[in-house]
Every structure is written in C-alpha cells, then in structure tokens.
Amino acid sequence: xMPVLKGLVASADAAIQARLLCPRGAATYLGLGSRWAIxxxxxxxxxxxxxxxxxxxxxxxxMDALVExxxxxxxxxxxxxxxxxxxxxxxxxxxxxxxxxxQCRVTAPVTAAEADT
Length: 117
What we know:
Blueprint: H1 3-19, E1 20-21, H2 23-30, H3 35-43, E2 50-52, E3 55-59, H4 60-77, H5 112-116
Antiparallel strand pairs: 1-3, 2-3
C-alpha cells in the first residue's frame, strides 16, 4: 500500500474508533472500574446507547455530555454527591446470633490406634 493511502486508512480507523465505543471501552474512557457501571448508567437513562449490528455502542460525544452534566450538577451542589450511609444493617441481612455449641464433623479423626487394627 502506498504511504499516502496507509495514512488515510489509519485516520479513517481512528475516526471510527473515536465515535462509538463498546461498554468496556466506554468504562475505560470514563475511568470507571467495569462495564457494569456503564450498563447502570444506560439503564437509568443517564447515558444514551444504541444497538448497532446487535452490539451495544456508546457515542463518545454522549459520554462527554454526561461528564459536563455531572460537573454542572456538582458545582451547583458545591460538593461531590455521596451515597447515603445506612444507620444500621437491616435485621434480615444481619448475621444470626446463634451459639455455636454443636458442630457437625464431616470427617472422623484418625488415630494411631485405629490405624493398627
């Protein structure tokens, strides 16, 4: 391939990659831990996404708009939003306070006396 055409192909590939990202690429772009964070943003309607050829794709411009929206929202509030902290663990999720008086043994102990017989 000629050097001029090679440069055009490379710039066309870069333009395609710059426009739409998969959920994992979107998570990396936004600095999030996993693609599941992207799925949550999409399911809550904060981040628009499209299905293209059966694949979920996120537009980079939409991610930039989300970042700007969050910046404006945080500057209005004056701080970074924090998740509310539960006062205590709900009773149905708290560990049971049962005494461990009886323990079931899965295997029987092997002693030297038993091994000789």
